[in-house]
Structures are given as C-alpha cells and as structure tokens.
TrEMBL record:
It is a single-pass membrane protein. One of its GO terms (cellular component) is membrane. Belongs to the UDP-glycosyltransferase family. This is UDP-glucuronosyltransferase. InterPro entries: UDP-glycosyltransferase (IPR050271), UDP_glucos_trans (IPR002213), UDP_glycos_trans_CS (IPR035595). GO terms for molecular function: glucuronosyltransferase activity. Coiled coil: none annotated. It catalyses: glucuronate acceptor + UDP-alpha-D-glucuronate = acceptor beta-D-glucuronoside + UDP + H(+). It is found in: Membrane. Keywords: Glycosyltransferase, Transferase.
Amino acid sequence: MELWMIVKKSLIMNLVVVPFERSLYNSVFPSIASKRGVTVPSYDEAIYNGSLLFLNSHPSIGTPFKLPQNAKYIAGYHINKDVSPLPKNLQILMDNAKDGVIYFSMGSNLLSSDMSETMRDSLLKIFSELKQTIIWKFEADLPNVPSNVHLVKWAPQASILSHPNLKLFITHGGQLSTTEAIHFGVPVVGIPVMADQHVNMRSVEIKGFGLVVTLAEDMAPRVKIAIEEILENPSYMQKAKEVSGMFHDRILPPGKELVHWVEYVVRTRGASHLRSPALGVPLYQKLYLDFIIVLITILYLLKNKIEVQLLVPRNQKCWRTKMWGAFGFYNMLHPTSNFCPR
C-alpha cells in the first residue's frame, strides 16, 4: 500500500501538478518581471531556489512531515484574534437556540444552491427532524423551509464557529474550513467533494473529532446518523477541544510568525543557511548510483571467486578443508568427510 501511494503521488506530480504549475508560471511571472526590467529564472530553477516555504497546515491538522528548516507551518494565519461580532439577527438566533446550533456550509466555491432538488429536499427533511437550530449557507431563496432551518446567502463563518452555542459544523472539508473548525474546537461532519477535502476529512476522522459522509444523492440518512452520533457522544467535542489546544500551543501566533520569517529572510539576504543540504548533493548520489556500483562490483568479485573454487581439483579441496579444519571453524560448517576420499 505504501509503495502504491508513492508511485501514485509521483505520477500525479509529474503528469498533472508539475505541467500545470510550469504552464501557470510561464504565463504569469515573466510578463510581470519584464515590466520591472527583471528576467525570471526558468520554472525548474525557481522551484529549487525558494528562500522560504510557508505551509498552510499544522501537525495537529494533518501529517507531521519531515521538513527542512526553511519550511514553516502557518495554518490559522488568516483568522483574526478578535473575531468580528455576529450580525444582530444571527446573534439573537444563536443566543436563543436552547438545543444548540448546527452550521452547514459547502464553502465559497461549491454552492449549496447547485444541489439537485432531490438532495436539497432530503437534507431539509432530516434537518426538520432535529431539535437543533440549523444555519445553512444557501445562495438562493427557498419556499417551505422548516422552522428550525435558517438560510443565509453569506455567513460570517469565524463568528459562527466561535459562538459557544455551536454544537457541530457540517463542511465540505476545505483546508480553510478545516483549519477554522480546529481553531475554534468544533467537531465536524465532512462531505468532501474533491482534491484535498478527502485528505482533510480522513485526517479529521482518524483524529477522532469528526465523521465523513460520502457525497451522494441519497446521503441524507447517513448525514443524520453522523449528526446524531456526534451530538450524543461527547468524545467528539472533547477531542475537538484537545486538538484545538495543540493547534494553539505555539511560540508565536501564526500571523506573527509569518511576518517574522519574511523579515528574517530579508535581513539574512535569502536565509541560504536554512536551505536543505540535499540541494547540493550530486544527482548520482541522490540516485545512489555510487552505492549501486560498489554493490555490483562486490557481487561480481564474489561470483568470480565462487567459480574459481568450483574449478579447484578435488584433492586440493581436501587439503584446504583439512587446513581450515585445524582451526575448527571450516569443519564445523563443512565436515571433511563430505570432500575428502576415504
């Protein structure tokens, strides 16, 4: 399985990601640079010439990768320390929701209004069966909406997630939404659609503060089961708060750390001392060609040695066996009776 993941990742990178990035790089940056009288390096040079790499992630969210010193985690940098107050109507709604609030949003690129009528109506039906108040980011007006469901065309997500009466976040599992859920310590039901959303939600499920539901026309009953499981089992909320604590336990807030490292690179003129020494390793060493050559040489010499031994006359073998037998080691492995004539 691990080998297949490596092969799969390599194919995706070389056949999809790198060609796309190269095309994007060549279509955007040279024209911008030429207006400033600057010539940009080729894509293949540029990708290995970065002074600093910011990762919009954190070990508490995903995998704790082995990284060089010039790669820094900054997930959460976009979240303001002082969250903006909710609009008055949402503030009253959330304050007065005696059984708590469930917030549902499929992000800014995936629109809930694009759902099929069957999917939309089945979700409204299961929401109507819940006692919680539902805030659903829905980009159109709908008739006959259940009394406990409130549709909003735009939602101040951070403000909603920070409210103490919020019980659950139903999300598509995008990187920013996942980060915000962890930042505010909210358990999630994930309905991933594409790209990194599947990876994010798999990590959430493994870490124990959310459940994943596969996107499908008939997913509504499974969404309801996941909602009820999280609401009735306090371990999900406890785990969300635990992971949130790890996310916040840093030397600096991510926004300040981002600024610090940018200024550091400027002060040190590129921070070349933080770059991985692997960038200076020759290609033949990266591919272990020197090791392979030594290994082949040893195998070749051993092969020749064995062939010579097989050509030695029988009496000579007997003599050598007796000689080594004087030390006791050879006889222990090869008794002389197997080689010498009686």
